[in-house]
Structures are given as structure tokens and as C-alpha cells.
Amino acid sequence: MPDAAAAGRRAAEIIAAVVTAKPEAVLGFATGSSPVATYEALADHCADGLNMSRVTGFALDEYVGLPAGHPQSYASVIGRDVVARLGLRRGSVRVPDGSAEDLQAACAAYEEEIGAAGGIDLQVLGIGGNGHIGFNEPSSSLASRTRVKTLSPGTAADNSRFFDGDPSQVPRHCITQGIGTILEAKRLLLIASGSAKAAAVAQMVEGPIGAFCPATALQLHANSTVVLDEAAAANLLERAYYAYVEINRPAWQGP
Ligand code: F6R
Questions:
Q1: How many CB atoms lie within 10 A of CB 112?
Q2: Mapping DSSP to helix (H, G, I), strand (E, B) and coil, where does residue 171 land?
Q3: Does any ligand 1 atom lie closer than 6 A to the CB of residue 149?
Q4: For ligand 1, atom 11, which residue shows the shortest CA distance?
Q5: What is the structure's pLDDT at 68?
């Protein structure tokens, strides 16, 4: 796609088709910058009549230890960027409990809740510059489940833009869906834009599968879609072929 806004529109088209086919779909929501254009474009679909009021969902991850209501907690971000913007019912998107006294129990409960909801129909993902998905940092087991992880110093530096530019304000720990958990979603939709993602994207799509680049796990999923702008796609060896596939996408395949 030419730019991040176009990538967002393409990704929103895919999500809108899933919700149209199944109004009570269970969606997995990423936070951060990558899906913002997608959620904005999806809000346009809602303005044009897409009804998302029966959708429920699960966030990918949450920081550990931020005070309740902190504006940068992912519970707050999901409330603003997803629930309010897309007209979902209050409380319809679960977020891991990063303030729980017993964090391990909170992780186990989250896995149970996803299972009880019948699993995730479509999981939206971004990718870190180091190849993480969720907060599964390099060396995360490809079979991992929802658990507490330590953010890498690089991820804390990247996310410091949400914390007054100060990496020391970024929590050290988080709860994240595991890679094994993510791979159980029925469909994966990863969105990336900008040159800072180009190396990780090339590794994800064309590199060997391995825990050192957690996003390579998408190669193991039978129904995963990667939507990129040109800058994020720049390092892909076969990018001309992928563009050709997109242009020649059979109509029966849907978005
Ligand atoms: C966010 C998440 C992360 C981000 C990734 C990219 O819920 O799980 O994997 O998707 O860190 O972040 P942005 O999109 O801010 O560049």
C-alpha cells in the first residue's frame, strides 16, 4: 500500500468483512501506533452502517503496575481507540489485569476467558522493530501462553514516546498473550508501516522461523495476512510478487 492510511483502509476492509459475516465476532486488538489508521478507517465503516455493537474482544497485552485509569495503560487505550471509537459495548473488550496481586493467576484467567469466548476470530497485530508480536520479545517460545514478560530496553525506548519521552517511566514488565495463544486465533492480521519496521518485516516474511524473531511464527499460521505500506515493505526480496498477488486477488477470496 502506498502509505499508512491506505494500509489502514485495506486492513479495515478485512475486519469489516469478518464482522459483516459474523456480527458477534471475537476480535483480538493490538494497541500502539500501527493499528491506529485501521481503527480510524473502521470507524468510517461504522459511520457507513457497519454495526459492531455485538463484537467482543481481547487485548493482546497490558503493562504491569500502572495505576488504574493511567492514560497509557492499554485498558485506557482500548477504551479510547477501540470501544468508544467503534461503538462497542462498554466492558466488551477484556484486557489482562496488570494490577492483579497474583499476576500468574491473572494470566491463567485470561487464557480461560479466551477459551470460554470460543477463541478469537481475528487477531490484529503490530510488529516491534525487534520482531516482537504482542510483547513476546526475541527468544520468546513459539509455544508460549499468556504470561508476564520483561520488556526489552529497546521496546521501552520505543514506547517512551507515550511516557513523556522517558524510558524509565515505561513499566519494566507486562502481561502478553503468548505466541501459542496468538497462533490459535482463526485469522491473523498484521499491520506495519514506516521504514523502522522494514528489517523486522523482511525477517518475519522471508526469514527462517525462529524464536529470535517472534513474528516469524506467522509463517506457521494457515490464515495470516500482512498489510504493509511501501516503507515497511522495502526490504522484502519478493515484494513485486506480493504486489502482483494482491492485484490479482480472486474475487471469491473476499477481502
Ligand atoms: C501492542 C503490541 C506491540 C506493538 C508493537 C508495535 O499491543 O502488542 O506488539 O504492536 O510494539 O508498536 P507500534 O505500533 O507502536 O509501532
A1: 11
A2: coil
A3: no
A4: 128
A5: 79
Query: Is the beta carbon of 30 within 6 A of some atom in ligand 1?
Result: yes
Q: Which amino acid is at 202?
A: A
Structure-derived torsion over alpha carbons of residues 71, 75, 78, 80, reported in degrees to the nearest 10: -40
Question: Residue 119, Cβ neighbours under 10 Å: how many?
Answer: 15
pLDDT band at 44; cut points 50, 70, 90: very high
Mean pLDDT over 215-241 rounds to: 98
Q: How far is the CA of 128 from the centre of ligand 1 (A)?
A: 6
Could you identify the residue written with the cell 497474583? 102
Q: How far is it, in rounded angstroms, from Cα 17 to Cα 25?
A: 11
**Strand pairing category for 61-63 and 173-176:** antiparallel
For residues 25 and 20, what is the distance between their CA atoms, to the nearest angstrom? 9
